[in-house]
Structures are given as structure tokens and as C-alpha cells.
Amino acid sequence: MSNDMGHSRKQADAVSARTQTDVAAFLAAGTVEPSRVTLRAITAGDQDEFLDLTAASVDLHGPRMSYPTTPAEFDAFLARFDHVTMQGLLICLRESGAIAGTVNLNSIIRGRFQNASLGYAAFSPTAGRGYMTEGLRQVIGYAFEHLRLHRLEAQIQPGNHASLKLVQRLGFRYEGTSPDLLFIAGAWRDHECWALTNAMVAPGPWPAHPTQPAH
To answer: Partners of 31 in the beta sheet?
Structure first.
């Protein structure tokens, strides 16, 4: 391993540790309903399992998703997460610790927006068993209760029926379609916008994040 790669991994692990501290605090608060899965931050040590799962899930993900397939790509994937504007999470089976899915909180914006964009994917060995629904419920709780976000959004291609059914089960509302929103698989693709606010989950009151203006 080169010195640069070693330094990058140390930085990634430092960021992961910050995220894991927040996730652990949320889970310790005792508001999570009993579940077959749990959350944790992604780390450099997850490389081999993550790459194996990505390779096994090519047919499941198709051209809609692009996840790391090599160690170098995995390092670049980890480097995106800075804890403040992006966080990388894993949904893991409670009994075995095996990774069932990955969730990114992307584009975290504070101030008057208090919003994040969700990116997520199941992996083939455990897909179709409801683990992503249970895991994303925990992510929603973490985002609203611990990170004090107001809104989560998911941008989904109209043909991604499994993902559309997933957000509908979780209570997201349809807010419209954006033509040519994201460049995926060689073309600009339309995406439906689905969103969830903390008030849609529970009436509150929800404590405001320190960055939220008073007026």
C-alpha cells in the first residue's frame, strides 16, 4: 500500500469513526423498534465484503447504479464521505453482522433547508427479504432524531419499481418528475422526486439543528 493510499484510508477511518459515534448514540437512545438489522458506518475494513457483494449484485443493480468494483474505486467511494455533507452507512444483519445493504446520506444541507438526499441499494444475497425497509426506517430515525434534519428526498428513475415501492412503504410522498436530472449509463435520465419530512413521521415538536435560523 502506498503512503498516499495509507493516508487516505486513515482519513476515511477517522471520518467513519465520527459517523459511527453518532449512529451508536442514536441506537443507544432506545427509540429504534426491534429489527432484524442494525446500522453502522462503512469503513475501509469493509472493502472485501463490499466488493464481493457488488460483484454478486450486478444483475440486481443493472445500469441504474454504479458501486465500486475494485479496491481503488472503493477508496474513492469512501473518500466522498466527510461526515458533514455526506455520510456512508451500512445495513447489517443483527445476528451475523453481514452487510445487507448500503445507504448514503448525500448533499446534507443545513440552514433553512435541513435536507439530505438518500442513495441506497440492497445486495443480491439478502435482497427481497424486507431488510432494506427495516434498515431505512432506522436511517430515517437517525436522520430526523439525531442529525435533526427536516427533510429527506430520494430521486428514483420511473422504471425502478422496487425502489418506488420501497419509498411508498416508508411513507414518502411524490413531488414530481425532473426530466434529464442525472447522467447515468451514458445518458441523462428522468427521475421522480419522493420526499419525507419529520412532521410526516410524527407531529413533534422536533428540536431544531443549531444551524437552523430562528426566523
So the answer is: none
Q: pLDDT (tens digit, 9 = 90+) per residue, 33-67? A: 999 999 999 999 999 999 999 999 999 998 888 89
Domains with residue ranges and CATH for the chain: 3-201 (3.40.630.30)
Strand boundaries in 3-98, DSSP class E: 37-41, 87-93
Predicted TM-score of the model (pTM):
0.94
All cell numbers assigned to 25: 448514540
Contact 40, 22 (CB under 8 A): no
Residues 6+ apart with CB under 8 A from 122: 57, 60, 100, 101, 128, 131, 132
**CA end-to-end span of the chain:** 51
Give the residue from 153, 125, 167, 1 showing the smallest Cα distance to 72. Answer: 1
> Is the sign of the CA dihedral 138, 210, 80, 29 positive or negative?
negative
Cα dist from 22 to 25, 26, 29, 106, 160, whole Å: 5, 6, 11, 16, 31
